Amino acid sequence: MEELKLDWVQSLLQSGELVNPQHGPLRFSAGSRLFAEGDPGDCAYMIESGYVEVSRNTANGKVVLDVLGAGEIVGEMALIDGLPRSATAIAVHDTDAVLIPRQEILEAVETASPMARLVLMAALKRLRGLRAINGSGNDCETASANHEYSATRIEAASRLKARTALEAAIRNREFQLVYQPIVSLLDGRTAGFEALLRWPQPDQQAVSPADFIPLAEVTGLIRPLGLWLLSEALHAMKGADLSLAKQSGSARDFFFSVNVSPRQLDSDSYVEKLAQLLEQPDVDSSRIKLEITEQALIGDPVKAMVSLGRLRATGASIAIDDFGTGYSSLSYLHQFPLDTMKIDRSFIYRITENPGGQRVVAAIIALAHELGMDVVAEGIENVREVKWLQSHSCRFGQGYLMARPAPLPTAIAHLGRYFEW
Ligand code: C2E
Ligand code: CA
Ligand code: CA
To answer: Is the pTM of this model over 0.85?
Structure first.
């Protein structure tokens, strides 16, 4: 297990995906250069402490454009328009700065609305022009623009801090997976497990994935994290097989479900890496289910179709997660290679007291069956819900009534029992 983890972090370090050193920001000693005029613009910096002087060389000698301090960002222009650095940045005192990789900004700019991009580019063009003429871009900044800027700066700084913490957690291998049984409602046996991510904290309270997954998504860190997740789940499956074989002499057939976020599907190279993990000779990919939310299907349906096709070609199956909460168009649902529908727990909550909700869930189950998918009901918390689902031909269920997510040894103990309702 240790070996797999080491490989993974090692390859991440080599890929340049993690940009800041293990213990926080980069350190520039007084007089050292962050970048020079003419350098390629591949990153920006947010200053945490110290001062950075930004200057240009002109016919009349050096002109200082700005001196920037804590909370300010430097080197951002080249990041957006990809042009060489138009100024030189030197640390005036010892300075700590967090690196912002170009990739992150590029993706944000590319996915912004065309109008937002246009405004950004126009402003940048004007700023570069002004700086060329006056040696300073401050002239056009009004009080209200300044106010807006500082609010945005505070937001960006806190996000950067969170990103750095997330990166550190990846480097330090702080993430863990827990597993929740997915149970056959026909016979009460555990059919598989969903792997769920946990970020334990020193003060015992784990940060909820609902809080850190969105951050991992916007920063793109979900992609390397997603690779780790899958390799960890594959490893857990082998571990589960081994321990069962030891106990009973034979392994049982059960699957592992792994969540895959939309951001993982829009990068061809990451989809390929996921596929290669599944195609390792000692992996039985037919026992792996990839859970994709509806959102992954709507952004760029054609791309999603290709990515899912590649993943399914490995032998893995695909589940549509949180069904009913997104905006999926029923008209294209049948075009995707989907095997399983997971009905979101908001539909199951209090289903037995809600005749309107019952009609909706009954219709969803019928739709799934019509499309050849099996159905998992999420968030089952009491026996009445099980009974209702059983009587409406829902084959699988998952919820606190059966078991909460738990570390692997606790979770696989459920394989040896029947749930009874
Ligand atoms: P999800 O994929 O819908 O996962 C099911 C969530 O419902 C889990 O929360 C699980 O603990 C919770 N749950 C299960 N049974 C019950 C129940 O009976 N009642 C209630 N109230 N909740 C129940 P968790 O682990 O906090 O995960 C939250 C979400 O974070 C997940 O929703 C998923 O969207 C995301 N997530 C978790 N792990 C991963 C991961 O490894 N990768 C990605 N991309 N997303 C993940
Ligand atoms: Ca899920
Ligand atoms: Ca779900």
So the answer is: no
